[in-house]
Each structure stands twice: as structure tokens, then as C-alpha cells.
Design goal:
Length: 800
């Protein structure tokens, strides 16, 4: 019996090769899209789960919030981790801190070969690093590798970079031209699915040498990412409940009431954390939801295609059903037969989709910046997912056509009088398909516009052709003025300053008490040298900028932004001359700068203090970059000039640079990825929908070929016949557009509300999406319509 079911199923598929191929290809494309998204989401959800204690590892975050000022930090002061371990040994099994000097780059030098590079992924960690994280060593003993000062671990790629084919164990790398680090171990390259990527891990005891032999004991400066391993998962809430008293006991009094600490599960960081000072940009949980919905919608479109064609073809199988029923076949047997055909088609589609997946995966990895391997297919949840796809799609998409076909009257079927059922359903499915497609096109277009807005809209400062050079702990600190004078000799260089961070991307925070405030509060602060406002084209609306001939500006003057005036309820003109305290030092406000986006446009413009750092000591500790404003079309020649001067003033130090505009674009990497992936799958959704429409138009034209022949005999022209065949589909797509617009509007408006700076929704985007979809659909239909309209009527009617 089962053999007969399969035999009949395969004969049926081979009899209608064209429609079977359309069904298989449509389902294969849908399943491939779904599989790619499933693999992508699986990778996103896998972050940091490779550690055996992942379910008990937590990062501590610190929040210092006072109205619209403050800081949401992923890092903590040095003493927090060890003190928690000492105070709560029954709950805290282990702790580890990561520290990177909060620097743009750290120079390492191979003294034997004179290879020197700036490295951005060098962290110093406690000796408990391997007690918390399950990273392995290819060489070395992880029990002791980080015990001693000046110990260094490096990845295999970095070992190759610095030592070639030599054994790096015991070799020396010079750190910041200050001290020798001894290679104590080799790590495999960091897996991509971890929230922090590293190339080097140094021992935390090495850091003591930068702070007079001991780690900083301040409870205010917060440069360490701190992780705890709790004794069990249930300890997290209990430990968090103890944090308020812990803060009162150890943190300085002026922070009491403002500081809050929270525990964040390690496995939540990649998708659920958007704090300041993250080790690297994280992804978003919203993207997982969006991609999940996109994958399901494309799969639905493919299923709708199958249901459409199956019900449309039902009239062609009426005689088969009639004969089978006459010979005694039961309704249940017929349903089983047609469901089996559906499962076979789905199974073939899955096989085709696997071939497509293997072919597309390398390009998909490049497109999404992933390194997903073919082995992901063999993970249990993926395998069970594929089996589930076969059963769910095979039964789900085939159940309605099976019941429709099994209810045919045998008498009408044998007479050829049985009409295909499901006309209304087919129309509804076409409407649903194109509603989904239009929503995806509108969503993708607006997401792209929002990304362009974030990147290109006015930030309030000049970001174009601003060259940043990493200068922390270099000889430039002592030679800054001489270097600046040499640089400014070139006509296509407008100005130069030195800054603490990439303006518009990152900033620091510090406590200030302004006139009228009872206690100091943490405010965003940006440290710089002179010519800061000139270099970035910032507009001083009241007062003046810092001046080199006014020495008191170095220690007793600040410039604030308009947002800080509003925060303190001051008019901009009355802010000039107002007093403030910074630590124990008094000073005066000398200027008010027009608001600008000193941080990402994901956030509103907050109060900001701009403070001068002009002495070499503070330059070495705080000033990290030189910022040079260029005005040239010949970037290469100007860069060569700057590099030449750099080599004169900082010999042996790598010339490490980037352009500010490129750095700012990385802030919106998450939106960029969402836009690219959504665009790709929106295009595929239209392809899958049109594939079904093509087959449906072909079937409709075949059904109406006699009517078309009669109309042509009576004088209808080819354009009139094409219009006749296209009219019904045009109505369906128009209805789909009407349904899609409000759904797209409300869903996209909700997404845009996540941005402090957002675009409005241009009605033209909706109109163009509808017109574009209609044109694509009409082009798809026109091929079959033209073929039917061009047929010789005598060929069709000669047997009638």
C-alpha cells in the first residue's frame, strides 16, 4: 500500500514538471532563507555559552544617574571584585577583572626583530581568568600563566605576527617602551561568539607598576570589567540585595544615593546590553526578533505558493479522484495520498535548500560578518528543525489541498464537470503574500533611510576629514607644541588639537558641583587641548573658548553646552561667570557651546562639560589622540607628510590613525547589519512571491485559453487580452497594498521610537513600495499573458 502511495505521488509530480518545479523551487528558497536566519539566530544566541560556568557567571554594571546626567557603565572601580569575593565568600566563588588602560592602542615591540605595532585588543586580567572562563592554552600552564608580573599570553595569530615560525614561549615583547613582558602561553584565536575579543592577556600584577607598585584603591574611577562566578544561580538576587549596603560601606559619600550596581548574566551581554564603555559593540535582541519574523514570513509566502498551485490544479486531477473513488478508494486514503505528495515535495525542497545553503553560506558569512561553519547544520536543534520543517510545511501546506481534492464528486470528476475549488482562498493567499512583501519593502526602505540619517545628518560638529592619531604615552606629550607648529606649516591642514576620545562616539564622566547645587553630580566630560572648538567647527553661543594666553584656563575654566544650561535652569548668557567646584578646585564657566551630538544619536543630547588638559602630565594620562582637521583632495600626500613628521617626533612609535567619520559609522553597525540582512531577505520574499504568481498566471492563462481564443476571433487585440489577464491580479495587489500600509506604519513607528533622533515616515516610501511591487508583479504576469494572447486561436479552437 505504502509503495503504491509513493509510486502515484512520483508519477503525479513528473506529470506536471513545470508546476512541480515551481513548487520545489519556491519552497526551497523559502526554506533556505529560513535556514540562514535560523543559523544566524543560533549563532547570536550562542554568545559566551562555551564556558562551563556560563549559567553562573555575571558581569557587574554600575549606574550613576541623576536626572538627565550620569553614566550607565559596564565597568567598575578596581577594588569592587576582590572586595565582593572577600565579603561574600559563600556566594561569590571566584572573580576576575579585565583592564585595558582605556586606551585606543597599546604598543608592543619585538626587540629582536624591531617589529612594533599598536594593539587594540590587549587586556590585563587577574590570575583567576581561567577559573572563570574556559579558554584553553595551546602552550603553557594556565594554572600559573598569569601569576607573576610581566606575564603575557597571546593568540596563535599574534604569535605568528610577532615571531613567525619561531617558538614564542619565553620570548619578550616590549610594552609601551616601558617594560618587558614574557610570553608564558599561547591561546587559540578568540572565538567570534564571545562578547569580548582579545589578542593578548597580560597579568593584572603587571598593572601595579603603572601605579607605584599597587593597584588603584579609588572607588570612583571605574576602568575594570568585573565578572563573578556565583556559587549557584539563585545567589544573584540575594547578592544584588546586599549591594546598597556594600555601596554605603565602601563608596565615597558624595556618591551615596547616586550609585547603583546590578548583576548581568554573561549570556545576556551580547544581545541585551547597550551600556557605556562596552568592550566592543554588542548586537540587539530586537534584531533576533526581527530576523525571526522575516524568516517565518518568507516561509509563509512559500507555503502560500504551494497551497495556491495545489488548489488551482485541483480541477486537472478531478478525473483521477473520480476513478479512484469509483474503484473504492476511501476519503482517508485520498487524503493520505495527497499529504504524502506534499511531504515528498517538501523533502525534495529541503534537499535543494541544503545545496543552496552550502553554496550561499560563504557569501552570507561575509555579508553578516560571521564565521558560521557547515558543521552548524549537524547541531541537534538544526536537524530537528529541518525535520520539523518537512512535517509542518508538508502537512500544513498540504492539508487544505488534500481535503479539497478528496471531496470531489466522482461522477462530476469523470464527466470533467468538477470545477477547481479554493478560488477565494487563492485570492486571500495572494493578498497575504504581497501584503507581507510590501511591509518588508517599506520596512527595509525606512530602516535604510534611518541609518543614512544617523550617519549623514548634522552632528553639530565638523566630522569630515578629521584625522585621529593615537598618541597616548608617546613622546608627543613633551613635544606637542613643536609638533603642532610643524604640522600647521602645511596649507591643507587647518588646525590641530588633542582629545581624550573620538568626538561623537565616546566620552568620559566626572563630578562637578555648580553654583546652586548642594552636592557634586556626575556629568559627561570631554577633555581636550586648545583649538578644540576650531578643529571641530563648534559654535560658541555665549562667552569664549579656551585661550592660550590666559593661563587660568588650564585649571579654573570650563565650557558647557546648552543642555547643561537647561539642566541647571540658567539662561545661556547668565551662565557665563558662574562658579563651579571640580574636586577641591574652584573655577568659572567661560563659555556656552551650541548643543552637538558628542555621543551616539541613539541617545538625546545630555549635559556636557568641556575641560582643558594642557600640561604634559595630564596629556600622558588622559589625552589619547591628536585630532587634525584636513582640507585637501589629496589625502594620500597629506597623510605621508603627517606620518613623516610623526616619525621625526616619535621615532619607533607606530603611526596609528583613523578618520573620525569612519569611526562614527561603526556606532550604527547594528542598524547597518539589520538594514543589509532585511534588504536581502525582502528581495527574496518578492522573488518567492512572484515565483508563485508566475505559476498561477500560467495556470490561469491555460484555464482561459479558449475564452482568449474566442475574444481574439471577435476582434480583441493583444494589449486588451493582456489587460484582461492582469486585471484580477492588479486588484489583489492593490488590496494587499491597502492592508500593508497601516500595518507597516505602526510596526515601523514602534521601531523608530527606539532612537532619540529619528526620521519621519515619508508617504512617498509607501507609494513607491506599492507601485514597485505592482510593476514587478505585472512584469511577472505579462510573460504568461503575452504568451497566451499571442497564441493562434485556430490552434486552440480547431477541435471545438
Amino acid at each position: 500500500m505504502l509503495k503504491n502511495y509513493f509510486l502515484v505521488a512520483f508519477r503525479s509530480l513528473l506529470r506536471d514538471k513545470f508546476y512541480s518545479s515551481i513548487n520545489v523551487l519556491g519552497l526551497a528558497l523559502g526554506i533556505t532563507c529560513c535556514l540562514l536566519i535560523m543559523i544566524y539566530i543560533s549563532d547570536e544566541l550562542s554568545y559566551d555559552r562555551m564556558h562551563s560556568k556560563a549559567d553562573r557567571i555575571y558581569r557587574i554594571n554600575e549606574f550613576m544617574i541623576d536626572e538627565d546626567a550620569g553614566e550607565r557603565s559596564s565597568s567598575l572601580p578596581f577594588p569592587v571584585g576582590p572586595t565582593l569575593r572577600a565579603d561574600f565568600p559563600s556566594m561569590v566563588e571566584s572573580q576576575v577583572r579585565l583592564f585595558d588602560y582605556q586606551s585606543p592602542s597599546l604598543m608592543l615591540e619585538n626587540k629582536e626583530t624591531n617589529k612594533a605595532f599598536n594593539e587594540t585588543r590587549l587586556f590585563f586580567a587577574d590570575s583567576t581568568f581561567f577559573d572563570v572562563f574556559d579558554f584553553e592554552l595551546v602552550k603553557g600552564n594556565k594554572e600559573t600563566a598569569l601569576d607573576e608580573p610581566n606575564s603575557l599570553l597571546l593568540t596563535e595569530t599574534m604569535a605568528k605576527k610577532y615571531f613567525g615560525n619561531e617558538d614564542p614561549m619565553g620570548k619578550i615583547l616590549r610594552f609601551q617602551a616601558e617594560r618587558d613582558l614574557i610570553v608564558k602561553g599561547i591561546l587559540p584565536d578568540t572565538p567570534l561568539n564571545t562578547h569580548f575579543q582579545f589578542d593578548f592577556i597580560g597579568s593584572m600584577s603587571t598593572v601595579r607598576q603603572s601605579f607605584n607598585g599597587r593597584l588603584p584603591r579609588t572607588w570612583y574611577w571605574n576602568p575594570c570589567w568585573t565578572y563573578l562566578v556565583l556559587s549557584d544561580q539563585n545567589s544573584s538576587k540575594e547578592l544584588e540585595a546586599l549591594f546598597p549596603n556594600f555601596i554605603l560601606k565602601y563608596f565615597p559619600e558624595f556618591l551615596h544615593g547616586d550609585v547603583k550596581m546590578t548583576l548581568q548574566p554573561l549570556t545576556d551581554i551580547h544581545l541585551k546590553s547597550d551600556l557605556e564603555f562596552e568592550i566592543q559593540p554588542n548586537s540587539s535582541e530586537n534584531n533576533v526578533y526581527v530576523f525571526t519574523v522575516i524568516g517565518l514570513l518568507i516561509l509563509f509566502i512559500a507555503c502560500f505558493n504551494y497551497m495556491n498551485l495545489s488548489t488551482a490544479k485541483s480541477a486537472k486531477r478531478s478525473k483521477e479522484v473520480g476513478i479512484r473513488k469509483t474503484l473504492g478508494s476511501k476519503k482517508s486514503y485520498l487524503i493520505t495520498q495527497f499529504l504524502l505528495e506534499s511531504i515528498i515535495i517538501t523533502s525534495i525542497a529541503v534537499i535543494v535548500s541544503l545545496v543552496l545553503f552550502l553554496a550561499i553560506l560563504p557569501a552570507f558569512n561575509s555579508f553578516t560578518e560571521k564565521s558560521i561553519g557547515f558543521s552548524m547544520l549537524f547541531q541537534p536543534h538544526i536537524l530537528f528543525g529541518l525535520i520539523g520543517v518537512v512535517l509542518i510545511i508538508g502537512v500544513g501546506a498540504g492539508i487544505y489541498p488534500a481535503f479539497v481534492l478528496s471531496t470531489f464528486s466522482p461522477i462530476k470528476g469523470l464527466k470533467g464537470e468538477q470545477k477547481g475549488k479554493g478560488g477565494n482562498l487563492r485570492q486571500m493567499l495572494v493578498i497575504l503574500q504581497f501584503s507581507i512583501s510590501i511591509i518588508m519593502i517599506i520596512g527595509t526602505s525606512i530602516a535604510t533611510d534611518q541609518l543614512d540619517f544617523l550617519r549623514q545628518s548634522d552632528t553639530g560638529f565638523d566630522k569630515e576629514q578629521v584625522l585621529y592619531i593615537s598618541a597616548l604615552r608617546t613622546p608627543i606629550a613633551q613635544k606637542y607644541e613643536a609638533f603642532k607648529n610643524e604640522i600647521l606649516r602645511r596649507q591643507d591642514i587647518n588646525s590641530m588639537t588633542a582629545v581624550v576620545d573620538a568626538l561623537g562616539a565616546r566620552h568620559q564622566g566626572d563630578n562637578f558641583r555648580f553654583e546652586g547645587m548642594e552636592r557634586s553630580t556626575l556629568f559627561s566630560v570631554f577633555w581636550s587641548k586648545h583649538d578644540f572648538f576650531k578643529t571641530f567647527g563648534l559654535n560658541i553661543v555665549q562667552g569664549r573658548p579656551f585661550k592660550e594666553n590666559i593661563l587660568s584656563d588650564d585649571t579654573a575654566a570650563i565650557v558647557i553646552n546648552q543642555a547643561l544650561c537647561r539642566r541647571l535652569d540658567w539662561r545661556e548668557d547668565e551662565a557665563i561667570g558662574k562658579a563651579y567646584e571640580y574636586g577641591n578646585r574652584p573655577g568659572k564657566i567661560i563659555g556656552v557651546v551650541e548643543d552637538f551630538n558628542f555621543a551616539s544619536k541613539h541617545r538625546n543630547i545630555e549635559p556636557l562639560v568641556i575641560q582643558l588638559r594642557n600640561n604634559p602630565g595630564s596629556f600622558n594620562l588622559l589625552i589619547k589622540y591628536l585630532a587634525i582637521k584636513l582640507d585637501t583632495e589629496n589625502i594620500g600626500e597629506t597623510l605621508s607628510f603627517v606620518e613623516g613628521k610623526w616619525n621625526e617626533f616619535a621615532p619607533g612609535r607606530p603611526f596609528d590613525y583613523f578618520f573620525l567619520e569612519d569611526e562614527l559609522n561603526t556606532l550604527y553597525k547594528d542598524e547597518d547589519k539589520l538594514s543589509k540582512v532585511a534588504s536581502l531577505f525582502s528581495g527574496l520574499a518578492i522573488v518567492v512571491a512572484c515565483l508563485g504568481l508566475f505559476a498561477l498566471a500560467s495556470f490561469t492563462a491555460e484555464q482561459r485559453k479558449k475564452e482568449i481564443a474566442v475574444r481574439k476571433v471577435l476582434g480583441s487585440t493583444i494589449p486588451q487580452v493582456i489587460l484582461l489577464l492582469s486585471k484580477d491580479f492588479t486588484k489583489l495587489i492593490t488590496i494587499a497594498f491597502v492592508i500593508a500600509c497601516p500595518l507597516a506604519y505602526f510596526s515601523i513607528d514602534s521601531w523608530l521610537n527606539n532612537f532619540a533622533f529619528r526620521i519621519g515616515m515619508n508617504p512617498l516610501v509607501f507609494i513607491l513600495a506599492g507601485i514597485g511591487t505592482l510593476i514587478i508583479a505585472l512584469i511577472t504576469i505579462s510573460f504568461q499573458s503575452l504568451k497566451a494572447a499571442s497564441a493562434n486561436p485556430s490552434t486552440v479552437l480547431k477541435y471545438e
